[in-house]
Amino acid sequence: MTPAPRLVVVGDPAGRRVAFFQDALRTAGLPGARVVSWPEVLRGSARFASGETVRIDSPGEDAEADRLLRDVDDPARVEGTGLWYERFTEAVAGLARSVTEAGAALVDDPAELAALFDKRLSHGLLHAAGVPVPPSPTSGPAAPVVRGWEHLGSLMAEAGMRRVFVKPAHGSSASGVLALETNGAGRVQTTTSVERGPDGRLYNSLRVRRYTSEREVAALVDALAPDGLHVERWLPKATQGGRAADLRVVVIDGRATHAVLRTSRSPMTNLHLGGARGDLDAARAAIAASGGRWKDALDVCERAAAVFPGTRCVGVDLLPTAGWRRFAVGEVNAFGDLLPGLLGLPGSGAEGLDTYGAQVAAQFTQTGRTDTRPTHAIPRTTGTSTT
């Protein structure tokens, strides 16, 4: 009998992500993972041992980690993502060295994490690989860096774009995202969850709002630009029940295993901003009615994940365009698996498993005790594992 793997997860010890992962290990009959906190990693006190397998999870739920990464006094603050990225990628690189020197193994590729957390770089890689993405004037390492509102207007004019999404290059969860609209008469408006405080600082809000004066919009863009901005054409989305719709598709070891339809009355479909889970079966029917195939939608997601072969689980934001016939990839998320209660797609090999259970089945039970591996565990489809 092969011994069970000795697993370590780097994350928030009190967070939901670590709890779900530990639950999945117990359900699979595996020992719980040793937990290393992000503050330990960021302060250089994390230690690893020979024979351990180390999984990196998001630092996003850890307030102390956020303070160490961004130097902010309030987790609701929007600014600081540029510093967050610099410190996060440096910490991950250092963690990878520590893991290697200890004789342990890291599940995912640190260089790919760095690319995934820069929307400009990841968009450029997807585009170069032929994955359909919204057109962008900031895509790739050679693209211009947005300096502020006036420069953004020039880039939009040169690209012939009047409706764009302006995204913090290193942001997540729609923090700081602006759905920006202009017209030939000089009118400007943006929809966003950003709230500007009396002190001029930017804060995340759970209420989506609209700014309709150029002065207000310019102030937002100028405040966000120093952290880095990514700009892409605002594609008209498909709708369900009069609400804008898109999909989050989880891809594990090259196979699309889970999908959730997200709908909203605003351009942002994130569930914490008032979005709601839609009817996935109705969406699949709409795709079929348009002459498209659900398989093709999943194939786009798997092609996007294949651009990052050293990252064994990603969440792909798939944008169905109006009419449900065509698809584009909005983003690929390194930590896009936090979808509580969502079970695997029929035929995916992950039926009956949530996103964490599917990862455990695919990535850990194969090297663990053979008598505890679920009979429906996902077969590996790539040879890129770093474990």
Structure description:
The protein is built from 11 helices and 15 strands. The protein is α+β, with helices and mostly antiparallel strands. The strands form 3 sheets. Strands 10, 11, 12, 13, 14 and 15 form a 6-stranded antiparallel beta sheet that branches. The longest helix has 22 residues, at 81-102. The radius of gyration is 21 Å and the shape is globular.
List the helices and strands and how they pair.
Elements: E1 6-11, H1 16-27, E2 34-37, H2 38-42, E3 52-56, H3 63-70, H4 81-102, E4 105-106, H5 110-116, H6 119-128, H7 149-159, E5 163-168, E6 178-182, E7 188-196, E8 202-211, H8 214-224, E9 229-233, E10 239-240, E11 243-252, E12 255-264, E13 276-277, H9 280-289, H10 294-306, E14 313-320, E15 327-333, H11 355-363
Parallel strand pairs: 1-2, 1-3, 3-4
Antiparallel strand pairs: 5-6, 5-9, 6-7, 7-8, 10-11, 11-12, 11-14, 12-13, 14-15
Helix pairs in contact: 1-11, 3-4, 4-5
Query: Can you count the helices?
Result: 11
Coarse shape: globular
Instruction: Average the pLDDT over all residues and give the rounded result.
Output: 90
Backbone CA Rg: 21 Å
Tell me roughly what share of residues is in helical segments: 25-40%
Write a brief structural summary:
Helix content is about 30%, strand content about 25%. The chain is of the alpha+beta class and about 375 residues long.
Features of this protein?
387 residues, six-stranded antiparallel sheet, 15 strands, 24% strand, alpha+beta, disordered C terminus, 11 helices, single chain, five-stranded antiparallel sheet
